[in-house]
Design goal:
single chain, alpha/beta, Rossmann fold, Alpha-Beta Plaits, four-stranded antiparallel β-sheet, 10 helices, 14 strands, about 30% strand, binds adenosine-5'-triphosphate, binds magnesium ion
């Protein structure tokens, strides 16, 4: 079963093309990341999925329900924690949750029970009589997550849920979301914290200028970046040592630090050590800097920008 299917989605705002034929599929149960620079179209895509914006062209479905023609059934399956705060400010927060549950057809007694449960889950039950405006910034983020959870959604959409959130709360939020995903909830996440995406997501889509640049697992993406083997030589040397081992892409020398770029540091390390040894260089230290998703991401979105501006 496919949780999200988008095919040829276009969204224009006047002359701005926020989505430019975006096609992507997310499987049921997946933890899926949406990465891309500011303005890439991530929130626009989410807005279309939840019916806050209408696509100019193309198709979007949630669990097989068209997000326009079958809006209510698609929307009932989704819990959204939006990037921007859009909360009714005049009611106690537990009432906001009960209204939300009621809107999705949940009867009042059950709505109350779920509201309490959601507030407990995110750790702000003691604030249940408080208005949204009076919560701290981090509590506001927690509340948005509670509101997303109150309908017990099959698809949880989190748009920058950890923006401006302290390290402790980020860790807590991620444990919670990870648990929900383990229990079968599909998660669509946008974040600018690439290490979060790297750790949590089964697959990530990289977007730029309203288009999908790539979809892959974090491991697959990392494998496309270059590793660096950092060798500290024991003695000063004049000139960069000759290293023509297979798999070595480049060598630079800075003082006694030799940086060897390669597609696989583990594979070339023995050859590099042997070559240095043969040339009479003693090694004081050896370190491997693996390609991060961030390196690959920055490279890809730069390439995409260069292509667009051509
Ligand atoms: N309601 C709107 N009216 C006009 N332009 C809009 C509107 N919403 C989004 N845009 C434009 O569409 C493009 C994509 O914006 P979007 O919010 O989807 O980006 P994003 O990937 O979510 O970025 P960020 O990482 O900053 O949240 C931007 O150029 C933005 O200015
Ligand atoms: Mg956004």
């Amino acid at each position: 079963m496919t949780a999200i299917r988008a095919d040829g989605l276009v969204k224009t705002y006047g002359s701005v093309r926020a989505l430019d034929y975006l096609s992507v599929e997310v499987e049921d149960g997946e933890f899926f990341g949406l990465l891309g620079p500011n303005g890439a179209g991530k929130t626009t895509f989410i807005s279309i999925l939840v019916g806050l914006a209408r696509a100019t062209d193309g198709i979007a479905e949630v669990f097989g329900h068209d997000v326009e023609d079958d809006y209510q059934r698609a929307r009932d399956r989704i819990g959204l924690a939006p990037q921007e705060f859009n909360v009714d400010r005049f009611f106690p927060i537990h009432e906001v949750l009960e209204h939300k549950a009621g809107y999705h057809g949940i009867p009042p007694a059950e709505a109350e029970r779920r509201a309490d449960e959601a507030l407990r889950t995110v750790g702000i039950y003691d604030k249940r009589e408080t208005r949204f405006d009076w919560l701290s910034g981090g509590m506001k983020r927690r509340f948005l997550l509670a509101r997303a959870l109150v309908t017990d959604p099959d698809l949880l959409i989190l748009d920058e849920p950890t923006a401006g959130v302290d390290v402790e709360l980020r860790r807590e939020l991620w444990e919670l979301v990870q648990r929900l995903n383990d229990d079968g909830t599909t998660v669509l996440l946008t974040t600018h914290y690439i290490e979060e995406a790297e750790r949590l997501c089964d697959r990530v889509a990289i977007m730029d200028s309203g288009r999908k640049v790539e979809v892959a697992t974090p491991d697959e993406l990392r494998a496309r970046g270059e590793d660096t083997l950092v060798v500290t030589l024991a003695n000063d040397t004049i000139g960069v040592p000759e290293l023509d081992a297979p798999g070595v892409h480049g060598v630079t020398l800075d003082g006694r630090t030799l940086s060897v770029t390669t597609d696989d540091a583990g594979r070339v390390a023995p050859d590099v050590i042997r070559a240095l040894d043969d040339a009479g260089h003693a090694i004081a230290d050896l370190d491997v800097r693996r390609a991060s998703l961030e390196d690959v991401f920055v490279g890809m979105t730069r390439t995409a920008e260069a292509e667009v501006s051509q």
